[in-house]
């Protein structure tokens, strides 16, 4: 998901809508905006679909007045396993004795089921199936005098990954979990302030990047400025390495590093680790593009667009149902026949998850007359599900969980299949190597080493 907030700006809703539009790659199912001004109180709009279709018309935007607002773009990871219902669309809102507050959450709460059970037993009435709603109910139970105090108390009970943007009538609040699994950045816009999942959302409104919110930090922002707290026990950070590989936009800066450069580095490392004689390096667009460029630069094999992406389709993996995802490949990708015919092709993609996309692409490219197909993957084999906000399927459905690399190669029907090593990936993000005793990043989907115990999943029988 993507989160965004603005305070002290004229017409916060339109600033939030622009920010969310730049974060659309983080969630395409639904979006919502909450604003406040003293003439109207809190206003909100929550809709299915793209930001550009829901939050651009003057009529809707006029229903969201005020100088402060937050927003969220959603793709479902936890909670509703079926289709998203409008009641699951954030921001969530709560009315407390000292006034209202709205919150938007990116990440996944790993003890949400346990918390929900306890809260329901004690009388909380949940409106949605979302893990994020726990935060509002925990805030309602808190005896804190101010809303930020209540939020602090609530978030201390929550486990897992969270980058939260929240608002009261006058304050914008941002918080990252102690490990800082998901990103969150602070920007300045004129006399106002903004919070966003990624820096690309600052660029679109021409805001100045100030800094990242630190892991475990909570900032409370009003007209007087930014106040910073560290409410949690300090821990070594474990940022999601997959944000660098796939999830974030390549024009964003994460942890002081250009995502694009990291992806190009990944491609270079891949070429060093797994060279192969071939005629062309082709990306599976868009997610494989920067790594393919890196592979080409390192190997000296020419880069070419052997697969063309229909720009009017969204991200495949963000389509939650399997049937749509299956269809999606042809709707989204087509082989550039004239280019690939008779050629030995190196195909670079960011990841192999279920293998459905990769298999279809291989079929299409062989149909078009390619002589050989060599897959090079910009991440290690995805053998474990993510419980921190990226929607990987159950373990059984992950190709790498049940097959060796050679079995995967035969299953996909390609001439060769190679993945970047975990150390190669760490080199690409600027580390000498992975610190195996205490890894610098979360890489659980590749290593199975979960930095936060996935309590709900263990309760449901998941075996680590
Ligand atoms: P696959 O061949 O595993 O079906 O799909 C691989 C491609 O789809 C990659 O380009 C990857 O970006 C995307 N993808 C498909 N499903 C998922 C998923 O559930 N999680 C992630 N992380 N990526 C996926
Ligand atoms: Fe990121 Fe993978 Fe960790 Fe999930 S398990 S937070 S996708 S690195
Ligand atoms: Mg892809």
UniProtKB/TrEMBL annotation:
EC number: 2.4.2.14
Pfam families for the chain: GATase_6
UniProt: Mg(2+) binding residues: 287, 349-350
The reaction(s) this protein catalyses: 5-phospho-beta-D-ribosylamine + L-glutamate + diphosphate = 5-phospho-alpha-D-ribose 1-diphosphate + L-glutamine + H2O
UniProt-listed GO biological process terms: 'de novo' IMP biosynthetic process; purine nucleobase biosynthetic process
Cofactor note: Binds 1 Mg(2+) ion per subunit. Binds 1 [4Fe-4S] cluster per subunit.
Record-linked CDD domains: GPATase_N, PRTases_typeI
Cofactor(s) needed by this chain: Mg(2+); [4Fe-4S] cluster
Residues holding [4Fe-4S] cluster: 240, 386, 442, 445
Statement: the UniProt record of this protein carries the keyword 4Fe-4S: yes
Pathway(s) this gene product operates in, as recorded in its UniProt entry: Purine metabolism; IMP biosynthesis via de novo pathway; N(1)-(5-phospho-D-ribosyl)glycinamide from 5-phospho-alpha-D-ribose 1-diphosphate: step 1/2
Coiled-coil annotated residue ranges, if any: none
PROSITE patterns listed in its UniProt record: GATASE_TYPE_2 (PS51278)
UniProt family annotation: In the C-terminal section; belongs to the purine/pyrimidine phosphoribosyltransferase family.
Entry-linked HAMAP family: PurF
Function: Catalyzes the formation of phosphoribosylamine from phosphoribosylpyrophosphate (PRPP) and glutamine.
NCBIfam families recorded: purF
Protein name (Swiss-Prot/TrEMBL): Amidophosphoribosyltransferase
């Amino acid at each position: 998901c993507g989160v965004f907030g603005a305070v002290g700006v004229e017409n916060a809703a339109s600033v939030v809508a622009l920010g969310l539009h730049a974060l659309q790659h983080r969630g395409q199912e639904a979006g919502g905006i909450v604003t406040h001004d003293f003439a109207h109180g809190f206003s909100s709009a929550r809709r299915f679909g793209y930001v550009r279709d829901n939050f651009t018309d003057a009529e809707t935007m006029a229903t969201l007045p005020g100088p402060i607002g937050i927003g969220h773009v959603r793709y479902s990871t936890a909670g509703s396993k079926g289709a998203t219902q409008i009641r699951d669309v954030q921001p969530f809102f709560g009315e407390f004795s000292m006034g209202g507050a709205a919150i938007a959450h990116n990440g996944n709460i790993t003890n949400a089921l346990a918390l929900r059970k306890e809260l329901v037993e004690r009388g909380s009435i949940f409106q949605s199936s979302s893990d994020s709603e726990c935060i509002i109910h925990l805030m309602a139970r808190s005896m804190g005098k101010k809303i930020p105090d209540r939020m602090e108390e609530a978030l201390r009970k929550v486990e897992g990954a969270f980058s939260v943007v929240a608002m009261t009538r006058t304050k914008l609040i941002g918080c990252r979990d102690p490990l800082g699994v998901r990103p969150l950045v602070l920007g300045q816009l004129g006399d106002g302030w903004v919070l966003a999942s990624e820096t690309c959302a600052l660029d679109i409104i021409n805001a100045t990047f100030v800094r990242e919110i630190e892991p475990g930090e909570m900032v409370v922002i009003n007209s007087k400025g930014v106040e910073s707290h560290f409410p949690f026990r300090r821990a070594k950070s474990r940022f999601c390495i997959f944000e660098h590989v796939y999830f974030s936009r390549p024009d964003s800066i994460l942890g002081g590093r250009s995502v694009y450069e990291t992806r190009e580095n990944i491609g270079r490392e891949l070429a060093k680790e797994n060279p192969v004689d071939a005629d062309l390096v082709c990306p599976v667009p868009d997610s494989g593009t920067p790594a393919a460029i890196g592979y080409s630069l390192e190997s000296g094999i020419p880069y070419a667009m052997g697969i063309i992406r229909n720009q009017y389709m969204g991200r495949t993996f963000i389509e939650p149902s399997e049937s749509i995802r299956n269809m999606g490949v042809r709707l989204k990708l087509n082989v550039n026949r004239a280019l690939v015919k008779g050629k030995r092709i190196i195909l670079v993609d960011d990841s192999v998850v279920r293998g459905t996309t990769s298999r279809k692409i291989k079929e299409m490219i062989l149909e078009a007359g390619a002589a050989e197909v060599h897959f090079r993957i910009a991440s290690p084999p995805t053998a474990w599900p993510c419980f921190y906000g990226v929607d990987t399927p159950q373990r059984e459905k992950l190709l790498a969980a049940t097959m060796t690399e050679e079995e995967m190669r035969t299953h996909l029907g390609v001439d060769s299949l190679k993945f970047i090593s975990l150390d190669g990936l760490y080199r690409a993000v600027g580390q000498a190597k992975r610190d195996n005793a205490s890894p610098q990043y979360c890489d659980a989907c590749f290593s199975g080493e979960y930095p936060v115990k996935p309590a709900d999943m263990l309760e449901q029988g998941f075996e680590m």
